[in-house]
From TrEMBL:
Site (Important for substrate specificity) location in chain: G182
Family according to the record: Belongs to the phosphofructokinase type A (PFKA) family. PPi-dependent PFK group II subfamily. Atypical ATP-dependent clade 'X' sub-subfamily.
Encoding gene (name): pfkA
Protein name: ATP-dependent 6-phosphofructokinase
Keyword match Protein transport: no
Amino acid sequence: MTLELDDLRVRTLGECRFDSPFAEMLATKRTSPHYVHEDDRVLVDDTVSVLLARGVPIDRLPSLEAAGPRRKVYFDPAATSVGIVTCGGLCPGLNDVIRGIVQELTEHYAVAHIYGFRNGYAGLTRRHRERVVELDLHAVRDINNDGGTILGSSRGDQCPEEMVDTLVELGIDVLFVIGGDGSMRGAMKLTREIDARGLDIAVVGVPKTIDNDLPYTDQSFGFQTAFAQATEFIASVFVESQAAENGVGIVKLMGRHSGFIACYAALSNNDADFVLIPEVPFVLDGPNGVLRRVEDHVRRHGQVVIVVAEGAGQELLEQEGRTTDASGNTKLGDIGLFLKQKITEHLTEVDLPPTVRYLDPSYAIRSVAANAYDSVYCVRLAHAAVHAGMAGRTDTVVVRWRRRFVHIPMRLITSHRNQVDPDGDLWMSVLEATGQPASFGT
Ligand SMILES: Nc1ncnc2c1ncn2[C@@H]1O[C@H](COP(=O)(O)OP(=O)(O)OP(=O)(O)O)[C@@H](O)[C@H]1O
Ligand SMILES: O=P(O)(O)OC[C@H]1O[C@](O)(CO)[C@@H](O)[C@@H]1O
Ligand SMILES: [Mg+2]
């Protein structure tokens, strides 16, 4: 997708007329290597060749609005009510984001009310309205020490009209949606309904995905915690595989469409000999197939460790009878168990009867509390989201792009998936670290 400058402009509800609590602090600030002034913009591209190829003046290059506090805000803080909802699968750091939003809104903007909706979009429906909780500093004090989300989450479609009725009933001015691609699609339906009714409600997203598969963001929050957690499971099967004759360790990691967790976890301690991801199809049979390569490795080293992303090799599995979850996401076949079976059969056939150690850590990597790095990242995203909302930005998400916090239009975050580029340097690092072939098969 070729982006033009105008595709990157975020929507705003109107002129910012109220004094911001940050006005004084910002009065003398100018862009520096470590700060981007609110009137400045951050470039999307970062290579000379791409910038030159655009062939436009510098001020027409694709660029993003800087996130951060404004000198003036759109909403009168003392009269503002805010809602927060977390949707989709869990991810380390959800509580840190909730806490950061509540603290910033309370301590700096001193808004009138902060409401938490329970269990995702379901919490905005009529039948769950009485379960709305009011959030204050006390309610969020220690929540960063826990995984999950104090608000709960859910999958499954809800009616936008009904959800907007709830926002109106509670007098919500800004809704913060912390969620993945599906949640952002849901949030865009909310803004459409808000627009249709001519309401003055801002919807700001904080993108969340444990799979790191959302575009226009350096890396999603919680991802680092999740892959660090995954590393432990790889280390376990490595130890087990070393101790056994023809030891085979297999770890299946989350990643429906993108193999980032598998790549990073495998690179982290370099115990993996093969990494299989959805972005790089593979064949099992034949002289260059996975089975022969695994066999060769076991013959040479006496053991092997394979890390497989859950979305890898789906084309090798039975497609019939595939169902979807409540949100419409396709339920995948189990590539981990399939590999376990095929590798066991093959090694037994070639007289290398294996001892297989198979781990599917699944929810164990995403249900933990964020590590220190992710906690910092989360609180900074939370602050950016609050400033965006108070400044009347809507249909907008806050992300970190090339280490700067910026605003992007919500529709861009759902425009495509971030995936491991088989021609990119991450996959090259995986190939270098594992020594596996660039492709299996022909
Ligand atoms: N196209 C859509 N329109 C409206 N709502 C949607 C749409 N897609 C998903 N949603 C809603 O958004 C919520 C979360 O979606 P989903 O379960 O797909 O998780 P997600 O936000 O993509 O997060 P993750 O993929 O990280 O688990 C659900 O309530 C779902 O019904
Ligand atoms: O079982 P659940 O809660 O639907 O979530 C599972 C999925 O969520 C994801 O982490 C995406 O959020 C996938 O990688 C994983 O398969
Ligand atoms: Mg999703």
